[in-house]
Amino acid sequence: MLSSLYGRLSPHSYGTLCALMVGFVNLLVFLSYSAHVFTVESVLHSVHERDPDRVGPHDGYYGMAVSNAFYMLSSILIVPSLSNYFRCKWVLVLCSLSFIIYYVSFQYLNRYLYFICCGFFGFSLSAFNIGYSGYLTEFSSNESLPRSQALSWGLTNVSVLVAGVVNFLMANANSGTSSSKYRQYSEGEIRVFFGIETTIAIASVILYAMLPNKEVEGSISHSHVKPDSVNEQIVEMVSVLANRQVLILIPFYLYIGLFFSFWVTIIPTTFQFTMALSKNVYVPIYYGAAFTAGSVTTSAVIMKLSSRIHNLCCKPLMVFTFLLHLSIFALTIAATPEWSTVRPNDEPALLIQPSSDLILNRDDNQIEEFLSSFLVLSCNYARTVISSMVMPAHRQQIFGVSRCYHGMAAAALFFGAPGLSIYSYAAILTVFLIAATMVYLYTCSFLEKQETEEKIDCESHSTYHQQRIAPLEDSDYLYGMLENEELNLFRRRYDN
């Protein structure tokens, strides 16, 4: 019944429906993901203070490092191969099943089980990113892809607001149960929190399985060439890894991994570890609201301008976001205590002092969260668009490679996180930002030049074809003239 309904829709309407549906399911997945990464370091830090033998003081960071290491390996060795045998929506189903295993582990939390299940978490991230990107290409062309991603990803990022509400409710319910100056998580709170996470993951499995499964004529996925054997898959992945344009884009892919990890895990941890903010129950919902407002605004702007500005997600967006990245790094340094990234403290910030009384009224916080959401979405849009343009015939492989470098950068960042201050993060990110911008703009120029040359070749071929046909048409005309002349000559002779 649903298949016949999808068949009657126009490609544009079908693409809009698919983008909305996958965006809604992603909202649920990212609701549990965002609520978890905002708090995982603080949760494990609380468990360590109660029972030092159960988990380490920074196992939250180390667990995220392990997750991203598995994310990196899954992105090049496992998930792209699975996508050659399963449609992308089934890859997303596998993603949610692995999330369930990870969330259940918090009901029996100990160090060794946690690190093992972090491997499943890393696989889930890889399956989600590659499956989601691949699913978009099943109903999107190169022209409609930015709009489809803006629509679905804008809806997905409402999850950050909902995650903030969930964290607020949990914090408010337990606000009077701890005598500590900093945010502490009780055993009961952890069990309830991750029980809710598990329930959401189960719902996402069902909803992913119900996604439409029809490819649209002219979509990007039609240009994808599937290998016939495992050996061909390995050769294909190696060829993508060794591709010149992919190698050039490595700093860009690394930077996205660094920036995303910094903003969704490190910055929320500084809220938990800064004494002036850690006991304020409104901080999570405030963070989520500001982030969501920026995400929805960004999606609306890109949807509106993508049809008016050619290749919006290439040079124009990258130049603009480069300036915004520098601005937000300066703001972060000014408003964050130096070592709130690592331990609970009451140290002053460089210029703008944190205050729980003014948290809802401070313009610097509002601007910081709004801009961060714009930059996170912009980086995701840019990565998907540039990857699909560089090697459209190997879309799953290049999506996997881009996530591989993302995971590599994030794993390195989290392994070093216990020794990095907010100033160290700003310095590392700035260096990679400059390199990422340079290689991205170079790749855009190369692709534009390549597109221009292809158009010239097509026009030259068309002109050559016309020049070959024109003499034939002229010869037919002359042949007809000769026939008429011979017929007239015969008639004159017959009359005489």
From TrEMBL:
Coiled-coil regions listed in the entry: none
Keyword Nucleotidyltransferase in annotation: no
GO cellular component: membrane
Compartment annotation: Membrane
Record has Heme as a keyword: no
Keywords: Membrane, Transmembrane, Transmembrane helix
Membrane topology: Multi-pass membrane protein
Name of a matching Pfam family: UNC-93
Superkingdom of source: Eukaryota
InterPro entries: Ion_channel_UNC-93 (IPR010291), MFS_trans_sf (IPR036259), UNC-93-like_regulator (IPR051617)
Matches recorded under Gene3D superfamilies: MFS general substrate transporter like domains
Family label: Belongs to the unc-93 family.
Name assigned to this protein: Membrane transporter
Species in which this protein is naturally found: Pristionchus pacificus (Parasitic nematode worm)
